[in-house]
From TrEMBL:
Family recorded in the similarity comment: Belongs to the ABC transporter superfamily.
UniProt-recorded Gene Ontology molecular function terms: ATP binding; ATP hydrolysis activity
Keywords annotated in UniProt: ATP-binding, Nucleotide-binding, Transport
Source superkingdom: Bacteria
Record field: transmembrane: none
UniProt-recorded name of the protein: ABC transporter ATP-binding protein
Domain ABC transporter: 2-223
Length: 223
């Protein structure tokens, strides 16, 4: 369970990107829906401990993530909206390298981790190809493979379907749905269908505030 209490973020120029956000996010897939500029990326970066909020508190299980961000990072998988890659490096080598950084020490264990992730994300056949040649869908699936290294308990995916064609989008969302019910997965998106199709729980963020929270079918009936 991820719990945010009274989280506010005011940027240096005075923009109030998050305004008193209180939210409980259970295990399973959770949709954070909102228009561009709503504050979704700010919220995702804050939960991923990349920026500290101006005020408020955030807990993940027994971890106070503002006081002990390192404890959260060990359990976190994060797929940012625009993630950088080394374009000439192969998918296999990049995942292997990231597994080293994540502390997967033994070569045998790394081989197993990387092979499992390449199969899970359907990238086995292109494992030796440079990431520069990947389509948008392949790139996003590679991003998920990266985020899954080390069996994270909290997975944050920020606007993952932007720019994907319908087939790639379905493939990507089905992959997310397969990750499991025993982890917290937060899917941030401005596309209603991404959330309605897959997420048992959701919240709507607009102008930095939570406008609605609940099950998609209830919210869609209510609106
Ligand atoms: P979303 O991800 O929903 O599009 P963001 O979190 O990116 O929303 O942005 C929320 C608001 O904060 C917007 O008004 C945006 O312009 C502003 N914002 C985002 N990043 C910064 C920044 N580094 N400095 C100032 N304002 C920012
Ligand atoms: P998706 O629609 O899921 O992004 P693509 O249609 O781009 O996937 O690719 C489907 C298959 O075609 C891949 O699994 C791969 O086998 C092959 N392929 C496509 N592009 C490349 C590439 N740049 N390098 C190697 N194989 C590729």
């Amino acid at each position: 369970m991820l719990e945010l209490e009274h989280v506010t973020h005011v940027y240096a120029n005075g923009t109030r990107a998050l305004d008193d956000v209180t939210l409980s996010i259970p295990k399973g897939m959770f949709g954070l829906l909102g228009p561009n500029g709503a504050g979704k990326s700010t919220l995702m970066r804050t939960v991923a401990t990349l920026q500290a909020p101006t005020s408020g508190s955030i807990r993940f299980g027994d971890i106070d993530i503002l006081a002990t961000p390192d404890r959260l990072r060990e359990r976190l998988g994060y797929l940012p909206q625009d993630f950088g890659v080394y374009p000439r490096v192969s998918a296999y080598d990049m995942l292997d390298h990231m597994a080293v950084l994540k502390g997967v020490a033994s070569a045998q264990e790394r081989k197993q981790t990387v092979e499992t992730l390449l199969n899970q994300t359907n990238l086995w056949n292109v494992r030796k190809k440079a990431i520069a040649g990947f389509s948008g869908g392949m790139r996003q699936r590679f991003g998920i493979a990266q985020a899954l290294i080390g069996n994270p308990e909290l997975i944050i995916v920020d606007e993952p379907t932007a720019g994907l064609d319908p087939e790639e989008r379905n493939r990507f969302l089905n992959l997310l749905a397969e990750i499991g019910e025993n982890v917290v997965i937060i899917l941030s998106t401005h596309i209603v269908e991404d959330v309605a199709d897959l997420c048992p729980r959701m919240a709507v963020l607009a102008a930095g505030r939570i406008q609605l929270e609940g099950a998609p079918q209830d919210l869609i009936q209510a609106s």
